[in-house]
Fold:
Amino acid sequence: MIRAGVSLPAVMHLLGHKSIRMTLRYVEVTPNDLHQQYHQARRNIASKYLLATLPAAQTVQATGNSGMLALRNALAAAQHLLAHFRLQLSDPAARNKLARLANRLVKISTELAQF
Structure:
C-alpha cells in the first residue's frame, strides 16, 4: 500500500495500530522507496514555488512602441516577482516595505501607459 501511494499514517489507521512503531514492523521501506519519496517531495515543492522569469534581454530601439512595450513587460514581470516574494515573507515590516515598493511600480507602470 505504501508503494501504491498510501501514506504511512493512513496505513497505520487502516491496520488498526495505535502507534507507528507497530506499523513499521510490517512495512519494508527500501532505499529505492526513500529515493522516490524524496524526489517526489522536491517536485511538489518546485511546482508550488514557481517564479516568473524576466523576459530575455532583447535589442530594441530606444524609439518606437517596441521599446516601450519591452519596458512595460519588464515592469509587469518585476511586479509579479515582487508580489510573489512578498507573500512568502513572515516579517510584517518587510512585507509592508515591499508593498510600498510594489505601489511605486504600479505608479510607474501607469505613467508609462500614458506614452
